[in-house]
Amino acid sequence: MSEVRHLSPETMHRNPAYSQAVVIPAGRSIVIVGGQNAVDREGNIVGKDLAAQTTQAVENLEAALAAAGCRLRDVVSCKIYMLPGQDIRTGFAAWAAKAKDMPNPPTVTGVFVSALAHPNFLVEIEAIAVVP
Questions:
Q1: Which residues, other chains included, contact 112 with Cβ-Cβ below 8 Å and sequence gap of 6+?
Q2: What is the pLDDT of residue 17?
Protein backbone atom coordinates (compact mmCIF):
# COMPACT_ATOMS: atom_id res chain seq x y z
CA MET A 1 0.00 0.00 0.00
CA SER A 2 1.29 3.48 -0.84
CA GLU A 3 2.70 5.69 1.87
CA VAL A 4 1.23 8.95 3.10
CA ARG A 5 3.40 11.83 1.82
CA HIS A 6 4.07 14.95 3.91
CA LEU A 7 5.04 17.92 1.73
CA SER A 8 6.89 21.13 2.52
CA PRO A 9 8.01 22.48 -0.86
CA GLU A 10 11.37 24.26 -1.14
CA THR A 11 9.55 27.37 -2.36
CA MET A 12 7.57 27.67 0.90
CA HIS A 13 8.44 28.39 4.52
CA ARG A 14 9.52 25.22 6.32
CA ASN A 15 8.67 24.62 9.94
CA PRO A 16 9.37 21.39 11.83
CA ALA A 17 6.04 21.73 13.67
CA TYR A 18 3.84 21.25 10.62
CA SER A 19 3.70 20.15 6.99
CA GLN A 20 2.37 22.40 4.24
CA ALA A 21 0.37 19.58 2.60
CA VAL A 22 -0.28 15.87 2.99
CA VAL A 23 -1.13 13.36 0.25
CA ILE A 24 -3.21 10.35 1.29
CA PRO A 25 -3.13 7.60 -1.35
CA ALA A 26 -6.29 5.85 -2.50
CA GLY A 27 -7.25 2.82 -0.49
CA ARG A 28 -6.16 4.15 2.90
CA SER A 29 -8.68 4.37 5.74
CA ILE A 30 -8.99 7.67 7.56
CA VAL A 31 -10.32 8.60 10.98
CA ILE A 32 -12.01 11.94 11.53
CA VAL A 33 -11.95 13.03 15.17
CA GLY A 34 -14.44 15.71 16.15
CA GLY A 35 -13.43 18.65 18.32
CA GLN A 36 -11.76 17.60 21.56
CA ASN A 37 -11.64 19.97 24.49
CA ALA A 38 -10.44 20.08 28.08
CA VAL A 39 -12.85 17.70 29.77
CA ASP A 40 -11.87 14.67 31.80
CA ARG A 41 -13.62 11.30 31.78
CA GLU A 42 -16.34 12.60 34.12
CA GLY A 43 -16.97 15.70 31.99
CA ASN A 44 -15.19 18.13 34.32
CA ILE A 45 -13.22 20.96 32.72
CA VAL A 46 -9.49 20.51 33.30
CA GLY A 47 -7.31 23.61 33.59
CA LYS A 48 -7.95 27.33 33.52
CA ASP A 49 -5.16 28.28 31.11
CA LEU A 50 -4.52 27.47 27.46
CA ALA A 51 -1.55 25.17 28.12
CA ALA A 52 -3.43 22.95 30.60
CA GLN A 53 -6.56 22.84 28.45
CA THR A 54 -4.57 22.05 25.30
CA THR A 55 -2.78 19.21 27.08
CA GLN A 56 -6.12 17.69 28.14
CA ALA A 57 -7.60 18.18 24.67
CA VAL A 58 -4.62 16.35 23.13
CA GLU A 59 -4.99 13.53 25.67
CA ASN A 60 -8.65 13.22 24.64
CA LEU A 61 -7.58 13.25 20.99
CA GLU A 62 -5.11 10.45 21.72
CA ALA A 63 -7.86 8.40 23.38
CA ALA A 64 -10.19 8.83 20.39
CA LEU A 65 -7.37 7.90 18.02
CA ALA A 66 -6.50 4.81 20.07
CA ALA A 67 -10.11 3.63 19.85
CA ALA A 68 -9.67 3.68 16.05
CA GLY A 69 -6.31 1.90 16.13
CA CYS A 70 -4.26 5.07 15.62
CA ARG A 71 -1.73 7.16 17.50
CA LEU A 72 -0.95 10.86 17.45
CA ARG A 73 1.79 10.16 14.89
CA ASP A 74 -0.93 9.04 12.44
CA VAL A 75 -2.60 12.49 12.40
CA VAL A 76 -2.28 14.18 9.01
CA SER A 77 -4.39 17.29 9.63
CA CYS A 78 -5.21 19.21 12.78
CA LYS A 79 -7.31 22.30 13.46
CA ILE A 80 -6.90 24.14 16.74
CA TYR A 81 -9.69 26.55 17.69
CA MET A 82 -8.97 29.10 20.43
CA LEU A 83 -10.71 32.00 22.06
CA PRO A 84 -9.38 35.50 21.28
CA GLY A 85 -6.86 36.85 23.75
CA GLN A 86 -5.05 33.53 24.11
CA ASP A 87 -1.36 33.39 23.30
CA ILE A 88 -1.29 30.95 20.39
CA ARG A 89 2.34 30.10 21.20
CA THR A 90 1.22 28.63 24.54
CA GLY A 91 -1.28 26.36 22.79
CA PHE A 92 1.22 25.29 20.14
CA ALA A 93 3.85 24.66 22.84
CA ALA A 94 1.47 22.33 24.68
CA TRP A 95 0.62 20.61 21.37
CA ALA A 96 4.33 20.28 20.50
CA ALA A 97 5.12 18.76 23.91
CA LYS A 98 2.65 15.95 23.21
CA ALA A 99 3.51 15.63 19.50
CA LYS A 100 7.30 15.82 19.81
CA ASP A 101 7.81 12.24 18.62
CA MET A 102 5.88 12.65 15.37
CA PRO A 103 8.26 11.79 12.51
CA ASN A 104 6.10 13.71 10.02
CA PRO A 105 4.07 16.58 11.44
CA PRO A 106 0.50 17.09 10.23
CA THR A 107 -0.89 20.15 8.56
CA VAL A 108 -1.96 22.53 11.34
CA THR A 109 -4.44 25.38 11.25
CA GLY A 110 -4.87 27.70 14.24
CA VAL A 111 -8.11 29.66 14.34
CA PHE A 112 -9.45 32.23 16.79
CA VAL A 113 -13.21 31.86 17.29
CA SER A 114 -15.69 34.00 19.21
CA ALA A 115 -16.96 31.14 21.38
CA LEU A 116 -16.69 27.40 22.01
CA ALA A 117 -19.28 24.91 23.29
CA HIS A 118 -18.80 25.92 26.96
CA PRO A 119 -17.92 29.41 28.21
CA ASN A 120 -14.91 28.05 30.16
CA PHE A 121 -13.37 26.27 27.17
CA LEU A 122 -10.30 28.04 25.77
CA VAL A 123 -9.39 25.51 23.05
CA GLU A 124 -10.84 22.74 20.91
CA ILE A 125 -8.86 20.42 18.62
CA GLU A 126 -10.12 18.34 15.71
CA ALA A 127 -8.02 16.01 13.61
CA ILE A 128 -7.85 13.63 10.66
CA ALA A 129 -5.63 10.55 10.91
CA VAL A 130 -4.67 7.75 8.52
CA VAL A 131 -5.08 4.26 9.94
CA PRO A 132 -1.68 2.51 9.88
A1: 81, 82, 83, 84, 86
A2: 77
With 60 as the cut, is the pLDDT of residue 1 above it?
A: no
Report the distance separating Cα 55 and Cα 52, nearest Å. Answer: 5
User: How do strand 107-112 and strand 75-82 relate by DSSP bridges?
Assistant: parallel
Q: Taking residues 58-82, report their average pLDDT.
A: 95
- Name the H helices within 1-132: 50-67, 88-99
**Contact criterion met (CB below 8 Å) for 123 and 86:** yes
| Cα maximum dimension of the chain | 47
Can you say how many angstroms the Cα of residue 81 is from the centroid of all Cα atoms in its chain? 10
**How many Cβ atoms are within 10 Å of 86's Cβ, its own excluded?**
18
Compute the mean pLDDT over every residue in the chain, rounded to the nearest whole number. 92
How many structural domains compose the chain? 1
CATH code, domain carrying 74: 3.30.1330.40
pLDDT value at residue 103: 83
